[in-house]
Amino acid sequence: MQERDRVFFEPLWRRVVLVIAVAAWSAWEWSNGESSWGTITTGVTAYCIWTYLIAFPSASKQLKE
């Protein structure tokens, strides 16, 4: 992730909105019977959860380094 991306996604609410939007897209695909797109978007949702909610470098972590 580049520095400008990290700065943009620093507020937690932006990351949560992104994850919710991708999860909603995934639910939409599955509800329409699109299993291939549902699988792809489920993978993207899992990636977003990991990248933006679990492993995101917080400002407090960076101050310690």
Quick tags:
elongated; 80% helix; 65 residues
Architecture overview:
The protein has 65 residues and is mostly helical. It is built from 4 helices and no strands. Helix 2 (12-31) packs antiparallel against helix 3. It has one domain. Helices cover 80% and strands 0% of the residues. It has helices at 3-8, 12-31, 35-54, 59-64. The longest helix is centred in the N-terminal third of the chain and has 20 residues, at 12-31.
Question: Which helices and strands occur, and which strands form pairs?
Answer:
Elements: H1 3-8, H2 12-31, H3 35-54, H4 59-64
Helix pairs in contact: 2-3
In short:
By secondary structure, this protein is mainly alpha-helical. It has helices at residues 3-8, 12-31, 35-54, 59-64. The protein is built from four helices and no strands.
Distance between the termini: 18 Å
Number of helices: 4
Coarse structural class:
mainly alpha
For the record, the count of structural domains works out to 1
Please report the total strand number as a whole number: 0
Would you tell me the overall average pLDDT? 87
> What share of residues is helical?
over 70%
Write down the overall geometry.
Answer: elongated
State Rg.
14 Å
Strand and helix order? HHHH
| Beta-strand content | under 5%
